[in-house]
Amino acid sequence: MTGTIPTMMPDTATAQTLNQQFGIPQTVRFDDGPHGQPHAIITADDATAVLYLHGAHLTEYQPTGRKPVLFTSRQTQLKPGKPIRGGIPICFPWFGPKQGDPAAPMHGLARTQSWNLDAVHKLDDQRVQLTLTCSIDPFHVTYTVTVGTQLELHLRVHNTTPANTSASAARFEQALHTYFAVSQIRSVALAGLAGLTYLDKTQAFNRVTQGPEPVRFEGETDRVYINHPGDCTLADPAWARQIVIEKANANSTIVWNPWTDKASQMPDLGDDEWPDFVCIESGNVADNAVELAPGEAHEMSTTIRVEDL
Ligand code: BG6
């Protein structure tokens, strides 16, 4: 069962029109919510999820019988022009501050843009797939979200400059800035990063080599692990689960928690919420930024699944 093109333009998308074009009974329905932000409420056989058109932002993902996988702040602002605090913001086409333009918004334009919903498909009994697109000159971005027993995220970036021009390659950074819900940040451990180099943003971007042990959290953490095409596993013994994060064509992993002081300066995060999440972000940033020739496309993907521990 599917709902497909014509593309829903962001300025005309309301829950009512989205339901008419893309709703699937008992599986996908749309709501405007209290702040008039249209979002899909997805109920697959083995998982539920919530996806906003604002930022193509997934705010909830929960396999049946499990605790929520994603953290979203109760103080998030659901307003045009503001990013949602939590879930999975898409950082694109730059990560962090824009080089040479400190006034530009942090983490790029994609997370505050209203995306087009292009298609909704029930792939089979287990999986529901939504496809969203947006254009940020010279790029056209296609984001495919597949909700099932695991969460599959696929980001395709196309440089729309015609291939037969002499234009130079366009550079971009990208990250799926995933806020994972945890029992308590001090009790989780992150494996998969041993021996890698990271840029420590809490220490003026010093380059540090990660030791052999899993990463544990004892203070503000803001690290960009470069040249890491591999997977990570977040063990959370108090919740008897581990989250496995697999990725393809994503050579960076960013690990972030603001801890007490930074959290208290963030108006869209409750002062007591920072121990409830850790961000583990798959992407291509800093040394791993992508140079995309005219007419070319780049694809990255991430798969997130929960296992018993
Ligand atoms: C992380 C960055 O990815 O995002 C941090 O490494 C940053 O430096 C954090 O503070 C949150 O950014 P923002 O713009 O969502 O507050």
Shape descriptor: globular
> Rg, please?
19 Å
Number of helices in the DSSP assignment: 2
Order of helices and strands: EHEEEEEEEEEEEEEEEEEEEHEEE
Coarse structural class: mainly beta
| Largest sheet data | 9 strands, antiparallel
Number of strands: 23
Task: Note the beta-strand portion.
Answer: 35-45%
Helix-residue proportion? under 10%
Query: Strands across the major sheet, in which order?
Result: 1-7-8-9-10-23-19-18-14
List each distinct ligand once.
6-O-phosphono-beta-D-glucopyranose
| Uncertain regions spanning at least 5 consecutive residues | 1-9
Distance between the termini: 36 Å
Mean pLDDT: 95
Element layout with pairings:
Elements: E1 2-3, H1 15-22, E2 28-31, E3 39-43, E4 47-52, E5 57-63, E6 90-91, E7 116-122, E8 128-136, E9 139-147, E10 151-159, E11 170-172, E12 174-176, E13 179-181, E14 189-191, E15 197-200, E16 206-209, E17 221-225, E18 232-236, E19 241-248, E20 252-257, H2 259-264, E21 277-284, E22 290-292, E23 297-308
Antiparallel strand pairs: 1-7, 2-3, 3-4, 4-5, 6-12, 7-8, 8-9, 9-10, 10-23, 11-22, 12-21, 13-21, 14-18, 15-16, 15-17, 17-20, 18-19, 19-23, 20-21
The structure holds 6-O-phosphono-beta-D-glucopyranose.
